[in-house]
Sequence to fold (190 residues):
Amino acid sequence: MAQRKYSIMDVEDYLILNRNSKSTRYEYLDGEIKMLAGGSPDHSIIIANLTATIKGPLKGSQCRVYNSDVQLQLSEKRYVFPDITVSCDQRDRNQKEKIHYPHVVVEVLSPTTEATDRGKKAAYYRACPTIQEYIMVDSAEVLVEVHRREEERWTINTFEPGETVRLESLGIHFPIEEAYEGTSLTSEIA
Fold:
């Protein structure tokens, strides 16, 4: 998704702006506001594919899969809209505005968001004690990175065409091709 940078704002003003913005979403990272814009068709297809791939095996479990319409509050000064968030925490079940206890976060990278997704947001996701896996999915090539919390450190597993992506914290494994089905990148996996 494309992002536009805005000025520094305090959190109370951000919450008012976000609440009053019906068609526009803004992320808030330590006082910096970014307006989120739509992504490419491939970006959208990848999100839809992954949502279905993750949601299916979780049916009947305590975990819920949320799309990018649902805001994630990482701290008092960090509010984001990940492409996909999975929460397995009962405290998030009946939230009306945002969730607080993510288990897995997925970001589909685009040219305008990749630096932030790999930089600030990756650091903030790793700092969130409930996040067990942070998945970065490339939208320009067939490549998935799974950043996994293992005891007191994070590991990175990279998956390429022909490989099985493993989301160990959810017990979900799927061929990488499922994430890219129907995109312009299918020639890379044929």
Residues 28 and 114 are 17 Å apart (CA to CA).
